[in-house]
Amino acid sequence: MESFRKKEKRGIQRVKCVAVVLLSLLSLANFAPLNGCDHLVKPITVSNEDMLGRWLYVGGSSDLPGSRSLGRLLTSVWLDITATAQRSILNLIQTQRIYGECSSLTYNVTFENSTMIIEQPFYLKEVYLTTDCSDCLVVHEEVTSDKDHFTSLLLFSRNKTVSSDVLEMFKKQAECLHMPSPIMMDPNYEICPDNIPSSEGLSALNSLLQAKMGHGLARILDKLFDMFVN
């Protein structure tokens, strides 16, 4: 009987030791720093005033069909964001150059609580992620058109170029979101002028989203560009 009690006592001591170890591990876990991805993909606060002005496109990643090939054909893109009479409504002018030809689109968006929203004719939601660049905007964008869902990660700056550290952070954010490697713009580009007549942007963008017959071909082109174009 005495021998049994000794074994029981040793067993209880082992259980206590295991409990202490588990509590220690839980304590360490509670005070451990956030995972790198948790910090990098957490939305930040951006005010309406922060959004205003001109933003130059630096690069991005997207699973939108055709985006990979288009990203290599674009030679410049800029956004001009202005306020309207309604505080929650912003006007965007998007101007791009493709093979020397400039074109421009304009559309209104809702901007509230650090989030940009378009509800019709498709659904778009943008939030903004952390960056070490004070003159940059990292955009995490989700678009839903019918049953199709697309995600983009875009980097804009007030300047043509950003530091290598900012680029590495942006590429890490793409990895965290399980997105393709970003395609970056050549900084030695010519910006399109301001006085280009603008087309209605949402209709044009919706036409691209609705062109489902072309999505398969666009994905093939994306793969070819990724294979053969550096």
UniProtKB/TrEMBL annotation:
Cell location: Secreted
Gene3D superfamilies in the record: 2.40.128.20
Highest taxon above the source species: Eukaryota
UniProt entry keywords in alphabetical sequence: Glycoprotein, Secreted, Signal
GO CC list: extracellular region
Domain Lipocalin/cytosolic fatty-acid binding: 53-182
Primary residence: secreted
SUPFAM superfamilies named in the record: Lipocalins
Protein name: Lipocalin/cytosolic fatty-acid binding domain-containing protein
Organism: Channa argus
